[in-house]
Design goal:
single chain, about 240 residues, alpha+beta, Cyclic Phosphodiesterase, Chain: A, 4-stranded antiparallel β-sheet, 3-stranded antiparallel β-sheet, 9 strands
Length: about 240
């Protein structure tokens, strides 16, 4: 079993519904969903281009997937989340926009994301005692030789290279898109998503995703509210 601390809007949020349909899977229920049939891409091609993020569901990584350390269990993790969330005030995020991250497309902040970056760094640090050391195989899978020196140091110490000053908040919408299809994909995503990105989101909770078996789908196990806002009951799974 692996766990991850992600941000995703609530289950009943318009953007959650829309992005889940784009990806073809709802991380709250685990259900596969029919994807859009009115893009220039065939159903088969769209499924291929969204295959990688479909497994994770609509999310932004705050603390990357990890196994629990020896002597730790899921109840301890959830309890630690509850304590952590009590110490973190909810805040308004910048508005999101469609952006390119190399060959990938994602929703990214349209302005300074200082508070998001701070919160992500706190998530990395706050649960480190519960993370099992990374295996040699997982380390090699990250292709450390391709990373910058600081990113490689983060990978060795924290189990993930894109943290702290290397962190960029993003909600992934595609896998790698070939250059010859990239402009068309960008136009499609802007047309579809821009109407759903007119208002900023609240970061008012922290969500625990679980992967029951290696390379399996991630589903949502709990959503814990941050301080300063009423508690929201976690979805029944």
């Amino acid at each position: 079993m692996r766990y991850a601390l992600f941000y995703t809007p609530p289950a009943d949020h318009d953007l959650t519904h829309f992005a889940s349909r784009w990806l073809g899977r709802d991380a709250y229920s685990g259900a596969l969903l029919p994807q859009f049939g009115y893009t220039p891409f065939s159903a088969e091609r769209l499924a291929e281009l969204t295959h990688a993020p479909r497994r994770y569901g609509f999310h932004a990584t705050l603390k990357a997937p990890f196994e629990l350390s020896d002597g730790s269990d899921e109840n301890q993790l959830v309890t630690a989340m509850e304590r952590f969330c009590q110490s973190q005030a909810a805040f308004t995020m910048p508005k999101l926009k469609v952006g390119r991250l190399g060959p990938f497309f994602a929703l990214v902040p349209d302005s300074n994301a200082r508070e998001l970056n701070r919160f992500a760094a706190e998530c990395v640090r706050g649960f480190e005692s519960l993370r099992a050391p990374m295996s040699d195989a997982d380390y090699a899978r990250r292709n450390p030789d391709r990373l910058e020196q600081q990113q490689r140091a983060y990978l060795q110490e924290w189990g993930y290279p894109y943290i702290f000053d290397a962190f960029r908040f993003h909600m992934t919408l595609t896998g790698p898109v070939p250059e010859e299809e990239a402009d068309e994909m960008e136009a499609v995503l802007q047309t579809l998503f821009d109407p759903h990105l007119q208002a900023p989101l609240l970061c008012d909770h922290l969500t625990l995703f679980c992967e029951a078996e290696k390379a399996g789908p991630f589903t949502i196990h709990a959503s814990i509210p941050l301080a300063s806002l009423p508690a929201r009951k976690a979805p029944t799974l």
